[in-house]
């Protein structure tokens, strides 16, 4: 299973990533080019920890056997990326064989033609059977974006430890219609300079959903992307709401097994 990560650089020198399968689509200098306090590197490394860290590291380490295909796009101290740069990164990651793509970022204001390029890139990845998992954002806003509205994207909001949607998660009709929620509180993941750090919000929640999809697809490798998306979101039977339901990976597993993929 190949998971695409469009994010900051991943500090592959972290001891708990020593055995991880991490490929970068741009030179990373073994992770040494980014300083430990680089916000973009901290973010990318923490997402990687949720997905492919060593089991027993203290990070979630949901699918440590997967290959993480990293395409860094952030400047050192930002989670904002221009739409045209993101479009190129999505196309490159799909071409690199990623089956699931994790996005946790904010689009920079840009011209409408660049947003058209982003839609075209999402269409291209959809034709290649890529499932895109996108953090809904942590601005407490009602609305959406060209990303969360796309048919091949699963938007993800954060839930707290009491099972309630986080007050800071962005919500919206498209997010509620075909998105999901996942735990975005009380999580520790890898710190780029070594050790662990708290990592919360929709970025953490999206990585959990990405990891769940990777595990399901590894269990049911013949599953069609549309069937897997339907199983994980249960979108065919949900009531209209701007708040998506909490993800239930076991229910998704049973749904896929019932479709004779098992």
Structural class: alpha/beta
Helix/strand order: EEHEEHEEHEEHEEEHHH
Under CATH at level 1, the class stands as: Alpha Beta
Instruction: Report, as a whole number of angstroms, the end-to-end distance.
Output: 17 Å
Shape annotation: globular
Give structural notes.
Helix 4 links the parallel strand 8 and strand 9 (180-183). With 262 residues, the chain is α/β, with parallel strands linked by helices. Helix content is 34%, strand content 18%. Helix 1 (39-52) packs parallel to helix 5 and helix 2 runs parallel beside helix 3 (112-127). It has one domain (2-261): 3-Layer(aba) Sandwich (Rossmann fold). Strands 2-3-1-5-7-8-9 form a seven-stranded parallel sheet, with helices on both faces. 52% of the residues are buried. The protein contains seven helices and eleven strands. The mean pLDDT is 90. The chain has helices spanning 39-52, 83-95, 112-127, 173-178, 202-219, 225-233, 249-261, and strands at residues 2-7, 21-24, 67-72, 80-81, 100-103, 106-107, 131-135, 153-159, 180-183, 188-190, 196-198.
SSE diagram, text form:
Elements: E1 2-7, E2 21-24, H1 39-52, E3 67-72, E4 80-81, H2 83-95, E5 100-103, E6 106-107, H3 112-127, E7 131-135, E8 153-159, H4 173-178, E9 180-183, E10 188-190, E11 196-198, H5 202-219, H6 225-233, H7 249-261
Parallel strand pairs: 1-3, 1-5, 2-3, 4-6, 5-7, 7-8, 8-9
Antiparallel strand pairs: 10-11
Helix pairs in contact: 1-5, 2-3, 6-7
Q: In a nutshell, what does this entry contain?
A:
With about 260 residues, this protein is of the alpha/beta class. It has helices spanning about 40-50, 85-95, 110-125, 175-180, 200-220, 225-235, 250-260; strands spanning about 1-5, 20-25, 65-70, 80, 100-105, 105, 130-135, 155-160, 180-185, 190, 195-200. The protein has a seven-stranded parallel sheet, sandwiched between helices. It has a two-stranded parallel sheet with strand order 4-6. The protein has a two-stranded antiparallel sheet with strand order 10-11.
